[in-house]
Amino acid sequence: MPLTCQQLIDQHPDAWRAATVHPFLQRCQAGTIQPGQFNTWLVQDYHFVIGFTRMAGRLLAAAPADHFNPLLSGIAALQDELNWFQAKAAERSLDLAVAIQPNCQAYCQLMTDLASQSYAVQATAFWAIELSYNQGWQKHSPMPEPYTEFADRWGNPAFTDYVKLLAQQADQALQGADAATTEQAEAIFLEVAQQEADFWQMAFEAK
Ligand code: HMH
């Protein structure tokens, strides 16, 4: 029986909950997040998305051609997202050229290191990263202004559909995977979950 994305979620409920339920998101929903906390998340996540876009490019390079459609639409969405981050930072008069914090750096390093892994492992990581934001923001929706558009960006139903396609593609790649690859996929899933929890905590602890 090949490993599936759904099994990863089912077999690691605690890790996944920690990745997608956090006081940072709870306070966004309550409208009580502090500007320093939110702005730290915003600036660091901009840098995360730069790294994630590079990862998407490498994933596309490793993917079979019949997996291109969702990946290319994802990359187009990332173009829009990077511009949107710049606009949000400008609205808040935030300098995007700040130091990348250790947690963000570690997450970007994880994505860089994925280049040496098989397509199945890269596809599993890509799905898990997108699902974490889809579920994280969705579980804390709706959010009051000015956070509504942030929750909607990743929590909207079209994004959920996109993440389902990513799961199908990862599942397909995992179907033909050997035991070592399957183990790597499970390991990367847990690493992504940990990095997500750490990323929220980094922003939560900001002044
Ligand atoms: C930390 N994880 C983090 N940031 C994001 N923007 C996403 C996932 C979704 O792309």
TrEMBL record:
InterPro entries associated with the record: Haem_Oase-like_multi-hlx, TenA_E, Thiaminase-2/PQQC, Thiamine_Salvage_TenA
Catalytic activity: 4-amino-5-aminomethyl-2-methylpyrimidine + H2O = 4-amino-5-hydroxymethyl-2-methylpyrimidine + NH4(+); thiamine + H2O = 5-(2-hydroxyethyl)-4-methylthiazole + 4-amino-5-hydroxymethyl-2-methylpyrimidine + H(+)
BP-aspect Gene Ontology terms: thiamine biosynthetic process; thiamine diphosphate biosynthetic process
MF terms in GO: thiaminase activity
Binding-site residues, substrate: 45, 81, 130
Keywords from the UniProt entry: Hydrolase, Thiamine biosynthesis
Residue span, Thiaminase-2/PQQC domain: 10-205
Enzyme nomenclature, EC number: 3.5.99.2
Uppermost EC category: hydrolase
Matching Pfam families: TENA_THI-4
Pathway connected to this protein: Cofactor biosynthesis; thiamine diphosphate biosynthesis
Superkingdom of source: Bacteria
Stated family: Belongs to the TenA family.
Role, per record: Catalyzes an amino-pyrimidine hydrolysis reaction at the C5' of the pyrimidine moiety of thiamine compounds, a reaction that is part of a thiamine salvage pathway. Thus, catalyzes the conversion of 4-amino-5-aminomethyl-2-methylpyrimidine to 4-amino-5-hydroxymethyl-2-methylpyrimidine (HMP).
Protein name, UniProt field: Aminopyrimidine aminohydrolase
Organism encoding this protein: Vasconcelosia minhoensis LEGE 07310
